[in-house]
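Below is how a single chain appears once it has passed through the pipeline. First comes the sequence as given, then the structure the pipeline wrote out for it. We keep one example in the README because the format questions we get most often are answered faster by looking than by reading.
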Amino acid sequence: MKRTLKKQGSNICFSGIILILALMPILLNAGLLSGSSTVLFLGKCISFAIVAIGLDLIWGYTGILSLGHGLYFALGGYAMAMYLKLKETNGQITDFMHIGGLEELPLMWQPFKYFPVALIMVIVVPAVVAFVVGYFIFKTRVKGVYFSIISQALTWAVYSIFIALSTYTNGNVGITEIKTVFGSIKGDKNKNNMFLLFYVALIILVLIYVLSKFLVGRKFGKLLIAIRDGENRTYFSGYNVSRYKTFIYVLSAVFAGIAGAIFVNFNGSITPSQMTISYSITMVIWVAVGGRGTVIGAVIGAFIINLCEYNLSSGGMVEVWQYIIGAVFCITILFFKGGIVGLISDQIPLWIRKISGKVPENTKAEVQTQ
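Resulting structure:
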């Protein structure tokens, strides 16, 4: 029983999270929640959990620290927002295009008139960018801090381009005042649209979690860990490491793009701020706090950090909440390297066995160093 619980603990925990989330629209409909803002916020958290899973695959399992995943999140978000905006204007030019001097819809916007094409772009655009970046960087065996710096520089470059092309992207303001793929979700009369959107997002989260657990539970996952723990040894064992790293990097970018598309529907807008370096670093914090290399830790971290931010960023804590989140991140890195998942599954049981005197001497020494 204990062995089964330990082996399936992450899946049980994830099932519990999904069950709680699935009950939220029902509680709102029953009048047990104060307003629809909670459901909308949890919808955004679902998108954050998806991008965190992708980050965990490349950082937690493969050891690639990307500080620019906000780029792929924003690219997916813009692809969806462009379709939703054209849906509002019936395929005509937007207000900011008209102000910028355009008289007809730009060529780059033309494909986004059609929903199937927009869905494809949500996946293809982040995937192509990630493939180009990953192929050349991993082929030349750039890794560690150098890769992190390059990912930051790339994000900043694309961010600057989006700001400069204000006629096509609306600059700092971004694409705003858009409805969801199911129509408006504001007001009681559109509550069913919000519930439908929420459950679709929840299903996508489940599918991405299942796919990720499938990958890391097979030989592929063991190879990712081998690359993380000893890349040179994996090379010498005959594996083409750059291909594996490129593939997992592209997959994580696709997850981020899908997450961005979901986020836009709940948020009603997308701006270049979702592409900034600070936004990307925040995503890394979600994974670190939850517990990297576990998949479920990414989900837990994304929800907990954003719930803390949601509650702390108003009232008397508005000026210090960012310092609190930063302190939590630092404490986690310094003292709880396994994050929340590691603390619950490993460290606390070890401390309990240590107190009860059931821990071997060598294990006691490990506990003391943690």
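The chain has two domains: 20-332, 336-370.

See the next section for the split statistics.
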